[in-house]
Amino acid sequence: MSDATDRNVCPTKGLNDELLLSPKTSLLLYNSYMNAEIITIGTELILGQIVDTNFAFIARRLAEAGVSVYYKTSVGDNEKRMAETIKLALSRSDVVIITGGLGPTVDDVTRPVLVKLLNLKLVLNEHVLKYMQTYFDQRNIKMPQNNVSQALVPNGATIIENKNGTAPGLIIPVAKKYIIVIPGVPREMKPMLTESVIPFLKANFKTEGIIKSRVLKVYGLGESRVDELIEDLFRDSQNPTIALLASHLETKVRMTVKAKNDIEAEQLLNLMEVKIRERLHENIFAVDDDTMEKSVAMLMTLKKLTLATAESCTGGLLSSRITDVAGASAFFIRGVIAYSNESKMESLKVRKLSLELYGAVSKQVAEEMAEGVRITSGTDIGISVTGIAGPGGGTLEKPVGLVYIALSTDKEVISKEFRLGGNRIWNKERTAQNALDMLRRHLLAR
Amino acid sequence: MSDATDRNVCPTKGLNDELLLSPKTSLLLYNSYMNAEIITIGTELILGQIVDTNFAFIARRLAEAGVSVYYKTSVGDNEKRMAETIKLALSRSDVVIITGGLGPTVDDVTRPVLVKLLNLKLVLNEHVLKYMQTYFDQRNIKMPQNNVSQALVPNGATIIENKNGTAPGLIIPVAKKYIIVIPGVPREMKPMLTESVIPFLKANFKTEGIIKSRVLKVYGLGESRVDELIEDLFRDSQNPTIALLASHLETKVRMTVKAKNDIEAEQLLNLMEVKIRERLHENIFAVDDDTMEKSVAMLMTLKKLTLATAESCTGGLLSSRITDVAGASAFFIRGVIAYSNESKMESLKVRKLSLELYGAVSKQVAEEMAEGVRITSGTDIGISVTGIAGPGGGTLEKPVGLVYIALSTDKEVISKEFRLGGNRIWNKERTAQNALDMLRRHLLAR
């Protein structure tokens, strides 16, 4: 911290107000509502070779911080079109956030375009060069010569250090506006955005209130039934607004609220969540990023029970989802994937007579599989699936998508028939989801 | 087909030139190079609530058809900003493709905005109304009154029928340019784009040549080693250009070629593929959308061998990936997920002594698991994985990410140690990938 250049550094871990607001950094504090606009740069985006996941991440974090985003543009690594896009964005938005084009190759033209457009110069930043050198040293790699270009920084720009890569982020003041440039690599971009850019925007702009959403995930009710049950909330509630999004694995009820701050947002979301739960009850299996398997794991652990699985058509997917949850080994003892009739008989003690009389895809065999895996594994619960995933193997009587799921305890065996009729992957996924949901409901009632 | 309105219909299945080029549809045929621009509409996009996957799909299909895309903009359901965005796009592009905002609710303003901007009128289209009615009839649902709004079509627009939903697509001529509007729901958008929009553009514009890419998927070599091996091709080849994309499950070598037509593109890609294969050999496990498990399944079927799996830390993921491939039941006989020591002993005949002496995560136990599952299942090959997926369970001696994989045949048992050290899901995924790759290489050499 010996010279002005070094002071121009915005650490990614938390925001150092002193540094950011120092006169030398030429960042001006002023209070006004603001809107931001996002530009993602890369020819691979514009050719459709990769899906732009950065944008949703950035937009969501900005909305939650109370920053309005009205436009998002993607453009290739082309100097003219990039300059035009940035110029337009500056004309209508207070903050322009640019991702991508910061790499060390000649294709990466974001910095050259910016200095030309804003009439700035690229200056070698010793601090950046030093941390880049450390980055390569730690990995026992000699720093390639062309990486040095990444230490060239527009004069007047504040640096955001890159913990997970080499290119620094840049905050460039332009009159009363800002251009903020962050790398396109998600692993590098995300911490910079949440740890530096958002705090910087909050410190420098008054926000107009925040937008926050929460998702309740529903299973076991069709989309139209969910719609019916919450139709009045759906229609009458202005804040939060409610939206339904259905897929083959869940129906999401998304509440989106505008509020003065996070506390008010949470209160409004909680209030509406209570109302929706009064209508949908235990059909809600998880909130936001939580999953069906996580709910199952929590209930299994809470009730101190053990589990074994017997799978046919899901081929291991059911067990794999259960073991995705950290700590699953505390309750998950054994899984058997019995694709052939022989393995159903040997590993699961399914009777030959049942296979002959009813076939491998039948209620009877499903129940024997669940019983068999529970008893041979010595667990409290055994759950089984058998079905025809497709595309082959279906008949008129037993079509692709016909599935039986059974659950066995020392007190009872319950089973259920499903007729799914999608493609192979879809059928595997829905069957695993149905099995987990059956288990979840059993645990809730137990 | 009795009146002018009905003739204004472009069926999604194949393009009916007569209809599209009829004078009544006011579509003009002219020859010139062209560029397209894409606008995706929806407040849920701009709030970051969903990831825009439509754009990459559309951009890729256009590039492959020889249509240059230079800009992509996303904007919320806001009339003013939507109008401004469309106006700007029309000023710089020949074709503007808009997705989203075609639903039946008041939020869906794409059609109203367009008629206002272009000085058109919304006219009830009887043909659309009729197929929408059929759509609801087939699903035994009464058509909601507000869906009728979707049959209101700008005068002069050509209709693209929607096989998978209600809102029709629209082709609207504007001077010598076109605005093409398609729904935002991917299931509805995709067939419209490939079956109607692309053929329409090809028929109405001369294309400047096409851009096509092919991905070779590599495993078993680090990214920097791949880089070294093809460095000169990488550096010297202008067409196709070559890019590397590394993730924890593969390194992709993407070749992107510009060519006059599809045949020339394929030739250039084939030529380069041969050169790259000469460097990377069997480390290339699949091409484009093909997967490691598909390669394994093809080899297993070709060699007429049978397989059983024994999994610990992957918890079923290995088997699930194998059974994702249609026809896996022909070679995949049985899988065992042995999470506990007891189940390793009972189901897989692992010796108690080995568990006590070496521990469950050891070369010895991995090999006994592979042997055990092969012999008890009566298959040609047995493959096993045991490891510490994390986050718990690691020790100084056996840290999270330590994994052993073994493969047993009637002739030999081979095994390999891996030190991965990622998070739980990452470790599961890499372990399954390593196991599949070991099996693939064994089958190639066999």
List keywords for this structure.
Alpha-Beta Plaits, Molybdenum Cofactor Biosythetic Enzyme, Chain A, homodimer, alpha/beta, five-stranded mixed beta sheet, 3 domains, 41% helix, disordered N terminus, seven-stranded mixed beta sheet, 446 residues, Maf protein
Notes on the structure:
The structure is a homodimer of 446-residue chains. In chain A, strand 11 (241-247) and strand 12 form a beta hairpin. In chain A, 41% of the residues lie in helices and 24% in strands. Chain A has three domains: 4-204, MoaB/Mog-like domain (Molybdenum Cofactor Biosythetic Enzyme, Chain A, 3-Layer(aba) Sandwich), CATH 3.40.980; 211-287, 2-Layer Sandwich (Alpha-Beta Plaits), CATH 3.30.70; 292-445, CinA-like (Maf protein), CATH 3.90.950.20. By secondary structure, chain A is an alpha/beta fold. At the A-B interface, helix 3, helix 4, strand 3, helix 5 and helix 13 of A face helix 3, helix 4, strand 3, helix 5 and helix 13 of B.
